[in-house]
Amino acid sequence: MMEINMVLYQCSMCGVTFAMTRDFRDRMKSCHKTFYCPEGHGQYYIEKSEVEKLREQCSKQKEEIVRLKRESKKLAGK
What we know:
The protein has helices at residues 22-31, 50-76, and strands at residues 6-10, 17-21, 35-36, 42-43. The chain folds into 2 domains: 1-47, no CATH class; 48-78. The chain has a two-stranded antiparallel sheet with strand order 1-2. Strands 3-4 form a two-stranded antiparallel sheet. Helices cover 47% and strands 18% of the residues. The longest helix is centred in the C-terminal third of the chain and has 27 residues, at 50-76. With 78 residues, it is α+β, with helices and mostly antiparallel strands. The protein contains 2 helices and 4 strands, in the order E-E-H-E-E-H.
């Protein structure tokens, strides 16, 4: 027997309740593509996924490291 985990949603346009698999929900959260309620209303996730937030944070930290290294070299050269 195969178990499928579903998540219930309600369309913000028409109020129809529908379900999607957790896997599909996770993919839609990460790619921000449009998916549709049973009545055809487009839905999408605008907020950043946890992965996107962590990548952004990592990128900012790398930029800060580069900045601090440059600053350190300037101070060492004085």
